[in-house]
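Q: What would this chain look like folded?
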Amino acid sequence: MDKYRILVKGIVKYEDHYLILKKWYDDRIADPYQWDFVDGSLEFMEEPDKAVLRHIYEQTGIPVMIDKLLYTWTFLTGDVFNIGISYLCIASLDNVVISEELNDYLWITKEEFPEYLNKKVLDDIERVDLEDLI
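A: My prediction, written as structure tokens:
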């Protein structure tokens, strides 16, 4: 039986800043909390566009509009093949109310990405023309 999981990532932009969230990843690593963009899994029969809007709202309380699809990514977890779809989403406000599962949030500029984001996320973003983030 094939095992797939579809994920979405929302790179939320407000003016010239991008929203990152600090979330728990793994107790077995030196820093179990890491910064990333909003992400989550699709529910059964859910459309990816609706899933990214839902995850952003559930995790931050911010309603957004999808601007464009940015990139896709894949990785293997055990015997599950994960497929990810990343969107640039535009927020009309920057008043964030993070969900209980998150630790913190920041609005950062593109120039600050290397200071906060892990290498895997940075590698994914390098595949995108940074003009697409404007």
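The helical segments are 48-60, 113-116, 119-126.
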